[in-house]
Amino acid sequence: MATRTACQVFRRRFSSAAAALHPSPAEIRSRRNAVFSREQERQRALYPRIEKIEVSLRGPGLDGTLLIMNKGMSTPLSCARHLTEYHVDNSALALVDGELWPLHQPLTDSCTLTLLTFNDSDPTLLNEAYWRSCSALLGQVLETAFKDDYTVELLNTLEIPVTSGAFCCDVVLDPQLDSWTPSPESLRSLTRGAQQLIHHNLAWEPLEVAPSVALEVFSHSRCKQEEVEQKASDSPKGTVMLYRCGDHVLLSGGPLVARTGLCSQYEVTAMHSLGQGPWGHHRRTQGLSLPLQLQAHHTIWRRLRQRAEKLVRTVNISVLYLTQPADRSLSAFQGLLDGCPDNCLLHVLPTP
Amino acid sequence: MRLTLQMLISHGRVARRIGLGPESRIHMLRNILTGLVRHERIETTKVRADEVRFYAEKLIDYAKKGDTDEKAMKMASFWLTEKDLVPKLFKVLAPRFENHSTGYTRMAQIPNRENLDRAQMAVLEYKGNPFPPLYPVKKENELNLINQLLKGYREERARVPNIGTP
């Protein structure tokens, strides 16, 4: 009893010191936002004079159209705005010289542009980008959902194929919440949070930054810093792509779609515990979503949603030791991968 | 004839009056039918297309009897005014419809003629013609997001068949 009052006194006396050590999530968010805006302004200031570039369009009915746009300022979205409202509403991603380009990233050189929609003949790349954006949105919802007393750490999300039925967001919650399991009501409130973001129709603003700036942005999260270092070593140019949605800055493994308003049906389906990991109690939150142009009937949605509640298993393939010569195709090992439990490591080594 | 009121009222009479009289009607339909056999898809007024349809199908039924049959040859030579189409009828159209019992033609209505008469127009064609289809088939894209999700769903159901949902 006496110890309890003593503890309370200590907590009150030293709460300001504690706050200085662990800033509140709102403060962290505003700091990240400030760094992002500063870097964005700096990159925009690199083009003080307006220079023109020629953008030639590709696509059904658009072949050969030439647009004169501004260097470092015009985005594929502004090219779409020169066409029709249909192109603005339906294009989610762009292909610039064969490379995937987020819709809000400025164009730097004369190029060929293709606007990708969900109803193309081959929307595979766009489907993957959409899945990635949905997990990013889920991560944003999780970060803002909990009270300020609890910390939330988003982990590195793996690339999940669309056929697995649900997108995932791996998260490590505060140690105080280790014994908490989410009820259907809490999942529904997370869904409502996501629907709010969709309703606000926020754009995912991309920014290509040097690793040092990214490390500064994520200065309060050791896990994110490791992710930044890993992504910087993986990328050919040594830069890292940051995205900002509203006031939330996030890191992503690939391009995201243009804005949150492109998702229409969005539900957070389940949260599974994956046991203890290097950062704490590892949880996988799963969700299901469909874009505005491809809405499902409620009967189909219900079936897909039931499937999305089951745990999505992923396999980490880092290195595989090949005893046979290097031209042996990996399809021989597919049978191995099918029945594996998640987080099993197969080692792949290239033969010298 | 007795001049009755029933003669002036045509309620329930299904036979159409085309051209100047019954003989003129047959000649007109014969010309349209010849055009149909030559081109396999023609555009005329809706009423004429509807009338020709019956004769077009009957002509194919006659052609199926074979060109050795005397009656079939007489019918073909009467109905086709351009005699180079008689071998086409027996050698191309009749074998095409070997396995069909009825329904050798298709009629589709099109917007009214631009002239002052604003006549209702239709397209009449023999099935199996080489032109693009009149009603284009809309192909569902297998690679879009919802179909990929459903593909994954079906594969999972095939891999782990449920006992049966209650």
UniProtKB/TrEMBL annotation, chain A:
Residues 74-117 form the TGS domain. Its main location: mitochondrion. GO terms for molecular function: nucleotide binding; RNA binding. InterPro entries: Beta-grasp_dom_sf, Pro-tRNA_synthetase, TGS, Thr/Ala-tRNA-synth_IIc_edit. One of its GO terms (cellular component) is ribosome. Keywords: Mitochondrion, Ribonucleoprotein, Ribosomal protein. SUPFAM superfamilies: ThrRS/AlaRS common domain. It is found in: Mitochondrion. PANTHER family: LARGE RIBOSOMAL SUBUNIT PROTEIN ML39 (PTHR42753:SF9), MITOCHONDRIAL RIBOSOME PROTEIN L39/PROLYL-TRNA LIGASE FAMILY MEMBER (PTHR42753). This is Large ribosomal subunit protein mL39. It comes from Xiphophorus couchianus (Monterrey platyfish).
TrEMBL record, chain B:
InterPro entries: Ribosomal_bL17 (IPR000456), Ribosomal_bL17_sf (IPR036373). The keyword Cell cycle does not apply. It comes from the Eukaryota. One of its GO terms (biological process) is translation. Transmembrane segments: none annotated. One of its GO terms (molecular function) is structural constituent of ribosome. Keywords: Mitochondrion, Ribonucleoprotein, Ribosomal protein, Transit peptide. One of its GO terms (cellular component) is mitochondrial large ribosomal subunit. The keyword Ribosomal protein applies. It is found in: Mitochondrion. It holds the Pfam family Ribosomal_L17. Belongs to the bacterial ribosomal protein bL17 family. This is Large ribosomal subunit protein bL17m. The lineage of its organism: Eukaryota, Metazoa, Chordata, Craniata, Vertebrata.
